[in-house]
Amino acid sequence: LLLRSSLKKRNKQVADLDLHLPPSPAALPVLGHLHLLGRSLYQSLDKLSSKYGPLLYLRLGPSRRLLVVSSASMATEVFKTNDLAFSDRPSFAFEEELPYGSEGFFSAKYGEYWRFMKKVCMTQLLGAKQLEQSRSIRREEIASLLCRVLESGQKKEVIDLGAELMKLTNNATCRLAMSTRVSGETNEAEQIRDLVKESLKLATKVCFGDVLGPFKRLSFWLYGKQAIDVTMKYDGILERIWKEHEETGHKENEQDLMDILLKVYKNDKAEFQMTRNHVKALLLDIFVAGTGSSGEVMQWTMSELINNPHILKKLREEISSVVGTGRLVDESDIPNLPYLQAVVKETLRLYPPLAVTTRECREHCKIKGYDIPQNTMVAINLYSVMRDPEVWDNPNEFRPERFLVSSTVEGHDNETTIKGRNLVDFVPFGAGRRGCPGSALAYNTINSTIASLVQCFDWKAGASGDEAKVNMEVGVGLSLAKAHSLVCLPVVLFNPFRAP
Ligand code: HEM
């Protein structure tokens, strides 16, 4: 095995000699550049790019090649100039052996299945009609969050707002996806959240085999069985809910995502025939993508607002000038609240939950004169792109006003014109054809929840509500999450449920 692997490596090195590859720091034998990566991927890549430049070529273990992209100018090359060439996702070790490992939408190769599902996502699952129809779910989940916060406020008790926000996004996503029960003894939303979290953790450990070269089976021996067991538990819940959907169904205007997918699945005339696993894998993608990320962004937003009372005050003034003092702010008010949108965008810029997105190059191409060989894995560090000093003034400061410079907030969607070039610089949802299809849903959930929390309460930091600042330490791991859940004291300003 060792002999075969080293021969393969030598052939690759010889082929690489003919190419003009991007800069690469000195590598160790076998490990390549693995030793340069710490527990927080986006931070390690950010550090490397400030030393070696915004386009880097790394070797992870004996065989994996990785192109690292870290500036707005380089991101524009990937997301815009060469969008089609970079529209694949990389394959990972053992995906064929994990349940629906190769059937997900997120990880799908750019091809017939991905194009079909993208259309279904944009026109049906996450389109304008479904967003409108699911508005009542978000309104109910926000109301039940406000009730719990009101109770803490009235008792002058601190609340774990971080945990509450995670619960809100999880409940809202599970109801939107499959009308699951979110309370009582069989709280399906909580069961699904725990299983999805565990299965993702184990799958990541199994995929680590990718950098172990000839020893890659080791990671599957260690974690493969556990990963399969956890995913099969999720599968069991889904099969039960699927059966309930087939037996009872929902009215046309109460359809959830599973109802829509079952119709697509059963349509013999559809352009692409989905399998049962395609449906379950897509719902898994939606749980993974839909819950944690919006919850994290809301925690960071509230933390920044507590730490910047002048911004909190300005936002509350905007809400009260638009909504008045007699009713709760609603999702339909958002277009009239530009400062709210700017606050949320500024949080997404500084704390993108998926700090690094991965792609794969489908064909040999060139970036700024450098060769990028076919099948190279690409890591675009969204964190670095959105702190690129070439396009963002004082990039590390929380300044929502920067999004108000253009006449509308929508004006700064994801590009800025600098020296006659349109640069893709605001990318919390990625960009191009593989960009996030859930951004409108995420904006609606985040904007309306933050507006309600700001309108109804004032906030004091810390476990006893007497600390000067919220601790902004970042946790380790793949996502950009807070190290400590946001615990704070709510002070009631307005009770929307009290009769006038
Ligand atoms: C704050 C919330 C969210 C953030 C920051 C976020 C961010 C991202 C990013 C960075 C990507 C990769 C894009 C790329 O490679 O260019 C992505 C992909 C994706 N996201 Fe989101 N997302 C969020 C919420 C959601 C929600 C609510 C859903 C669905 C309910 C969703 C579904 C997806 C899917 C299915 C993909 C894969 C798209 C593809 O490969 O074609 N996301 N998201």
TrEMBL record:
It is found in: Membrane. Belongs to the cytochrome P450 family. It is a single-pass membrane protein. One of its GO terms (molecular function) is oxidoreductase activity, acting on paired donors, with incorporation or reduction of molecular oxygen, NAD(P)H as one donor, and incorporation of one atom of oxygen. Keywords: Heme, Iron, Membrane, Metal-binding, Monooxygenase, Oxidoreductase, Signal, Transmembrane, Transmembrane helix. Its cofactor is heme. Heme binds at C436. One of its GO terms (cellular component) is membrane. Its main location: membrane. Pfam families: p450. The keyword Metal-binding applies. PROSITE patterns: CYTOCHROME_P450. This is Beta-amyrin 24-hydroxylase.
